[in-house]
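comment on this one:
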Amino acid sequence: MPTSASPSDQQHFIYPSPPTATDDDDRSSYLASDDEGDLSSSLRSKQIVRFVSLVSATIAALCAGSIVVFSLYAPKFLSRLHYTQFQVNGVAIGSSVALYLPISIMGYVCDRMGVAPLALLSAFLFGGGYGLAAGIYKKLDYEYNTLGKSHGAENGWSYPLMVLAFIMIGAGTCAMYISSVSTCAKNFGKGKYRGLALAMPITGFGLSGMWLSQFGSRFLAEKNPDGSRGDVDVFRFFVFLAVLLFIIGILGVFTLKVVDEDELIEEAIEELEQSGLLDGSSLLARSESRRSNGGYGAIPATAQDDDNTEEVDDDAKWKKNWVLNAETRRFLSDHTMWPFALAFLLMIGPGEAFINNLGTVIGTLTPPITEDVNHKTSAATHVSIFGVTSTIARLTIGTLTDILAPAPETQHIQVPPSRPSSPLKRFAISRVVFMLFFAVLLAAGLLFLASGAAQNHADRFWVVSGLVGAGYGAVFSLTPLIVTIIWGVENFATNFGIIAMLPAFGSTFWGLVYSAVYEAGSRSSSTDPSQPGDDNGGSDDSVCYGKHCYAITFWAEGVCVVAACFLLLWAWKGRGGWSQRGIVI
């Protein structure tokens, strides 16, 4: 946006004596070569910053998904801490709510204050949360299983503190995730491979569950009396996570940088004003007010330079907030955003509930007294399967959409009608088609489990964890990508945060439903040994075995995901949808 120099700016100019023609030619040649060198050096330094930020964001995300391995130690909360299934789900729900609910606020802060404050916040939340959880677990485990004390009221304080610890962990996960993804979205919004760049931290987040579960179960495991490796040592695992994630958060403060954010805002203002979505009169009025208030008195150059620097910084912040607030209003008023957000809620909620309860679901598939190891499986194995399929889906989505999906001409909010950047491309598959395909895989996995096909055949459970992992990972990868494609990158963290906070309600709801069905199943097993599919595994009324422990929950979740597919289809092809408006997606 061109501007003219103000009178206050002109009084700083120093006019030297007129140069000769020869001097002028030499000087022009020298300045041109010097400018080219400075420009090349500046571009290289920016590329280095982008690359370092991409690597740092991927590493941070690779560690940030520690909450995904909750099912690895959830059975220990039942057996060692004597929690009920409702209490275990209460801890999981606390972390899920804290993971999703504050993401819109954190996204708002990220867009307006930068990613460094969120990285610092994540370090202290992770360190404090896992540290507190480790202390509580160590104390209760020692009292109940070493000293033989009964579960008394004097330890009633411990459960609220455990929930608080996992609320801190969930909030730390939210802060680290949104800062990592936002950095990549803004740094590579112009690039040809924006999908792959955005998929890198998202994939790292999905992969974190796999490597953390394997590391914990292999290198931080308890030793059985016979010297063999047992289950994960929860206390040591929590301490390890506290130290690791605190260090990663601190490193993120210094390595996560957004390059040329001011230029991004200027470009967004120009495009939105040309499209008529923004009225530039308020910006022009502020600029004129700044000039008229500058005065023409004889102010010392150094003092006025300081004032001008402060005014420029203040104007930059004001313009940034101005355009971001306008884009937020535009995003919230878009009627297609709401069915899209609801579809995301209905898809991710069942996926979250599944991974949180994976450990106890596996326990319902085989009788507790069985000796046949061929019919048993471990939570760590299926957390890893979930992580691998989720990772493959995220990377595949990032690559395929860059190659096959249409690309808009702009990295800012799309103003119909839009044209693809490659008009000669004959074959293109919409990102919505990819999302629908993987949502169907997610529903198929849930319905396969609900049908009882894995009951007494735990070796078939990989079908469930694989399909749910692939669907969950792809949906989580495509949703932020679609947000950047349709509504731009400069306000990405705020926009995606508004959508991403909704699954907190889905995770909470389905967690409570699963707990109710599981507890009802365990009570019926203990009172009715002839329960169909039950081999009298109800000797412990806190543990449930049989199809009746989970079938109703997963039938309902599968139907929920199918309904989400129709909502997504409506946002795309329905009346006034993206297709009718000419939005490239």
In short: The CA atoms of residues 136 and 152 lie 15 Å apart.
